[in-house]
Design a protein that fits this description.
- This protein is of the alpha/beta class and 331 residues long.
- The protein has a single domain, classed as Rossmann fold (3-Layer(aba) Sandwich).
- It has an eight-stranded parallel beta sheet with strand order 1-8-7-6-5-2-3-4, sandwiched between helices.
- α1 runs parallel beside α2.
- The protein is globular and about 55 Å long.
- The N terminus is likely disordered.
Length: 331
């Protein structure tokens, strides 16, 4: 196994405190216009809209070589990105990847590495879906789809890029989670279940990648006015249409609202998320936070993140895993 990197020197730098792992981000903090990403190669999933599309454009404008991936090519969103890249002379490449497909993930990452001339520096696991319903109403087809996208898709992508990152001896993985990866809202289907799983998988990955100088950061956005609401309504209405009355009859009010969420009233700037990631990329390797809460409004997960980090350090900090645990939590 490779030697533990200089992140482990941080283990003796502070006897207490793990706040760096759960920093509260104010809207005023999320300005990253001065970040230079020249020389960075960044692969982003789910770039047809929302955080993925904004990040692809912004990171390319900051000088990065960006691989913007999406499924179902050709499509207008891909044409728009390629036209933008040509017009602004951006180093931006559109690659087809459906995170549900093992084959497409392997082929898409291989294509990006071929263009890049080696392993990718940064992976942004952004592709994800939502479904809204009482848990009982969410059938197995919906359950399998949301876990396959939000959890297994991220796992496929991480496994595909990690050999290249390990060969380079460095890297960064961003996992786009949610506030609902730490707290729960009733009638949101298995969305929280998938994001809780993503959070756990990502934290374990962060510990295991310390010896390889690869950072993992979990981004936890609140509600933003992106196309996620449109897509969620489509999937939720399909679920509602095929749902069995034996299940829906127990939740008439919740079922009546299924597929009717429009994201109205949410005015936060979705650029908060790309800005937060750019700030973190600019940090020295080994000092980046495990979790970053992103929203100008309430961030109910902060207390949970703080306690979680304290428990992990207290439980395993003096064990054989201690250097990894302390390195990730910057203590």
């Amino acid at each position: 196994m490779p030697q533990l990197n200089r992140r482990n020197l941080l283990a003796g730098a502070a006897a207490t405190g793990v706040l760096a792992a759960s920093v509260s981000v104010r809207a005023s903090d999320l300005v990253a216009s001065d970040v230079d990403l020249t020389g960075k190669s960044i692969l982003i999933t789910g770039c047809s809209s929302g955080f993925g599309r904004l990040a692809a454009e912004d990171f390319a404008r900051k000088g990065a070589k960006v691989f913007a991936t999406m499924r179902n090519l050709p499509r207008p969103e891909a044409d728009e990105l390629m036209a933008l890249a040509a017009e602004e002379e951006l180093d931006l490449h559109v690659i087809e990847i459906d995170v549900l497909s093992d084959e497409m993930v392997v082929q898409g990452v291989a294509r990006a590495e071929e263009i890049n001339g080696g392993g990718i520096d940064i992976l942004v696991n952004n592709a994800g879906i939502g479904l809204s319903s009482p848990v009982e109403v969410q059938d197995m087809a919906a359950t399998q789809l949301i876990f396959d996208t939000n959890v297994f898709g991220c796992h496929r992508m991480a496994r595909a890029v990690l050999p290249g990152m390990r060969t380079k001896g460095s890297g960064q993985i961003f996992q786009i989670s949610s506030q609902l990866g730490r707290v729960i809202v009733p009638n949101a289907g298995h969305y929280s279940a998938t994001k809780f799983a993503l959070e756990a998988m990502s934290e374990q990955l962060a510990y295991e990648l310390v010896p390889h100088n690869i950072d993992v950061t979990i981004i936890e956005p609140g509600g933003y006015p992106t196309k996620v609401w449109v897509n969620r309504n489509i999937l939720t209405r399909e679920l509602k249409a095929r749902a069995d009355e034996v299940h829906t009859s127990g939740y008439p009010q919740a079922v009546a609202r299924m597929g009717e969420e429009d994201g109205s009233g949410r005015t936060a700037d979705p650029m908060d998320v790309p800005n937060a990631m750019a700030q973190i990329i600019a940090m020295p390797p080994g000092t980046r936070p495990l979790r970053r809460e992103v929203h100008p409004g309430a961030k109910p997960q902060i207390a949970i993140n703080k306690v979680s980090a304290e428990v992990q350090v207290g439980w395993l900090g003096q064990s054989g895993y201690g250097p990894w645990i302390k390195a990730v939590h910057n203590v």
